[in-house]
Amino acid sequence: MTASSRRILRISGTDTRDFLQGLITNDITRIDTGLVYAALLSPQGKYMADFFLSANGNDVLLDADEAQADMLIQRLSMYKLRADVQITPTELHLHRGLGETPADGMIDPRHDALGWRAYRDTPQQDDQTDWNALYVTHMIPQSGVELTPDTFILEMGFERIHGVDFRKGCYVGQEVTARMKHKTELRKGLAKVAVHGDAATGTAITAGDKPAGTLMTRAGDQALAYLRYDRATDEMSADGATVTRID
After folding, report:
1. Which residues contact 185 (CB under 8 A, 6 or more apart)?
2. Residue 70, H or E segment
3. pLDDT, tens digit, for every residue of 182-199?
4. Residue 121 neighbours by CB distance under 10 Å
5. Closest by Cα among 129, 136, 140 to 194
6. How does pLDDT run across 132-166, given as a tens digit for each residue?
7. Cα–Cα distance between 89 and 92 in angstroms, integer?
8. Which of 106, 179, 188, 244 is deepest in the core (most CB within 10 A)?
9. Domains in the chain: boundaries
C-alpha cells in the first residue's frame, strides 16, 4: 500500500471529540500527545474500518484507506445526527518514513519499527521502504487483506498494536469486544508463518485434510496468516506450499 492510497479527512465542530469518543475503539483524548490508531466497528462488534487520528488545531485529521474513505464519510455522517460536527476532505497527503522523526512527524503508534507519519501539501516521492516486509515481521494487519468485514479486531491483535482501549467507556461494538477480551479464549487469530513454495494471499491453509486458516500478506519466505489455533500443527500446506507457524 502506497502513501497515495490514503485519504485525509478533517473532522471539525464543537462536538468533534465527544462524537468520536462514542464511536471509535480507542481513546480520542490521546491525540493530545500523538497519533492515535483506532477502528470503527459494526454494532455486532465486527471491523468496518481502521484509521489514524491526529489533532490539527481544534480539528481532528482522520487518515484512512482510500478504499474505505467514502464509506467512513457516509457512516460518520449517519451517526452525527444533530451534533456540531463537519466531515470534509482535505488536500493533504500522507508522508511516512523510518529513522529520525521530522518536526511535523508523529510516531506510528502500532509499533516503533513502523517509523513516523506526517501530513503535507504535496505528495511523497521518495518512499522506498518495503512496508509489507515490516508488516509481516511485526504482525501488523492491513485493511482489505487481514482486516475484512468478517474480522473481530482482537483476533487481529488490536490490543497488541494499541488500537483499542478497554477503559475508555462505551463505543459502537464495545460490548462484543469487551466480552471477547474478558470472557472468551481466542480460538482463531493472526499468526506469522514460514512459507516454502508458491502460495498467494488468500490461499487456504490446511492441516492434513482439515481447513486450518488462510494465507495473508506475504514477504519472501514469511507471511501473515489467519489460523485456527487448534489446527495450527507443526506442518501445514497451502496450494502445495509448506506452511509452518513461527509466531
Report:
1. none
2. helix 66-80
3. 988 899 999 999 999 999
4. 8
5. 136
6. 999 999 999 999 999 999 999 999 999 999 999 99
7. 9
8. 106
9. 3-182, 187-245
Q: What is the pLDDT of residue 235?
A: 86
Dump the DSSP string for 89-144. E---EEEEESSSPPTT-EE-TT-GGG-EEEEESS--------HHHHHHHTT---BT
Q: Is the dihedral of CA 4, 133, 151, 40 positive or negative?
A: negative
* Contact status, residue 93 vs residue 123, Cβ threshold 8 Å: yes
Is 70 exceeded by the pLDDT of residue 3?
A: no
- Domain 3-182 belongs to what architecture? 2-Layer Sandwich (3.30)
Furthest-apart CA atoms within the chain: distance in Å: 58
What class, spelled out in words, does domain 187-245 have in CATH?
A: mainly beta
- 24-64 pLDDT, tens per residue? 999 999 999 999 999 999 999 999 999 999 999 999 999 99
Residue with cell 467514502: 70
Decide: 37 and 52 in contact? Cβ < 8 Å: yes
| Gap between the Cα atoms of 85 and 19, Å rounded | 8
Is residue 213 helix, strand or coil? strand
Per-residue pLDDT reduced to its tens digit, 5-25: 999 999 999 999 999 999 999
Q: How far apart are CA 202 and CA 225, in angstroms?
A: 9
**Given the C-alpha cell 512459507, which residue does it identify?**
195
